[in-house]
Design goal:
alpha+beta; 3 strands; YheU family protein
Length: 90
């Protein structure tokens, strides 16, 4: 069984999805004044990116953590994890 699963955004309660997207905005260091609408502007943009499959929501079954990631982050994360497993670091 895989340690990570992709979670469809539609499966999350709206408040939970908003909180995940706000955490992503904060973690990425987005300037919330860029949109003119503050955090809600970024959250709306990220919802559109989820709809276009440019972002994914991934849940780590081992750590019981859920994160929003870009596809590049997901691919990089997957390679880093595989490297750690090969080296016995994990």
């Amino acid at each position: 069984m895989s340690r990570f699963i992709e979670v469809p955004a539609r499966m999350l309660p709206p408040d939970t999805l908003t909180a995940l997207l706000e955490a992503f905005v904060t973690r990425q260091g987005y300037d919330t004044t860029d949109t003119g609408e503050g955090m809600s502007g970024w959250v709306a943009e990220l919802r559109q990116q989820l709809d276009r499959h440019e972002l994914i929501i991934a849940h780590d079954l081992e750590l019981e953590m859920t994160e929003v990631m870009t596809l590049a982050q997901w691919r990089s994360f997957g390679r880093e994890l595989a490297d750690d497993e090969e080296e016995g670091d994990y």
